[in-house]
Design a protein that fits this description.
This protein has two domains: 244 residues, Type I PLP-dependent aspartate aminotransferase-like (Major domain) (Aspartate Aminotransferase, domain 2); 104 residues, Aspartate Aminotransferase, domain 1 (Alpha-Beta Complex). It contains twelve helices and 13 strands. The radius of gyration is 21 Å and the shape is globular. By secondary structure, the chain is an alpha/beta fold. The structure holds pyridoxal-5'-phosphate. The site of pyridoxal-5'-phosphate has 13 residues, from helix 3.
Length: 371
Amino acid sequence: MLLLIPGPVQTRPEVRAAMAVDIAPWDDDFRVEHAALRERLLRIAGGTPGEHTVLPVTGAGHAVVEACLRTFVPAGGKVLIPANGTYALRMVRLAREAGRVPVTLEVPDTRPVRAEEVAAALAADPAIGHVGMVYSETGSGIVNDPEAIGAVVRAAGRRLIVDAVSAFGALPFRMDAHPECDALAFTTGKCLEGMPGIGIAVARIDRLTACAGQAGSWVLDLAAIHEYALSNGPGRHRFTPAVQVLRALGVALDFYEQEGGQPARLARYAENARVLYEGVQSLGLTPYLEWRHQGPVIVTVHQPPDPAFTLPGFVAALKARGVLISNFFNTTAPTFRVGCIGTVTPADMRVAVEAMRGALDSLGVRQRAAA
Ligand SMILES: *Cc1c(COP(=O)(O)O)cnc(C)c1O
């Protein structure tokens, strides 16, 4: 089966096999392995040893995004969230339920957030201390620009939290070029092509110290995770981590480095997205985003107006042809979504387009272009 969803992604057998061992997380052998893993992740994040640190939180990606919000935004503090998709709206909900005050900057889900919009919103409300941005908006496939948005946050003297969950490893970002950034959040199971199960924050050490004690959660407190590691040995976990997932991530990073790191991964995903985008057009379908706004992580496509089309029917017909896509959509208009990340290649994307042709023909979907 070809798994074309934006996480958990298709992985290599060697990565999955790395999980088939029993490990004690505190064992000295594993601690050495874990320390090396954290160093490699810090390098990929463009962090500086002594200034930034790597903090794993076992759980889904939402857990580490919530941990970032709780750790750095004080209770009752305002966080501006530019929202051009569902993942930003999820950040709004995480902030609200954690007792922070989200200020939603609504942007259509068909274009990136503009830095001027963020600058204007910050100028209008001096009480906003943080901006929480989604780098790759997995709802639609749009990529927002952390360079431009980071620059206006920096100029306004505010702080930044980046949800890079579907971006990290493929889209560029360097913590050392973003002093305004408190934390960058990502997971093991997306562009790093590891197994799902652990969220990771790369955070500024000075800010972890300054923000100690305000999370209002023992589990989701990055400052406490950092403090524990300091007093008990680097990388020491407070609670039982998904330790096999960490081991598998080390193997996934071997392949990441062999491939050529971030630029190579971005190039492969971008080519995957291009083949898919042009492929669905060749079938008469209409991509949701204009090509100039199309990111490399996920391609969303308008559902054909033909009454013969249903999303469950299409997903089942594709699955019968060996391709698994999401059975839901997150855009304003009805779409289907196809992931371009994981151990998949442009050749796989051509296979997927042919499977879509077969699925549409078998369902009798003739009217395909969006109205
Ligand atoms: C996948 C993803 C998350 C986290 O999703 P989980 O299901 O909690 O792992 C958060 N933000 C973005 C942008 C994502 O793509």
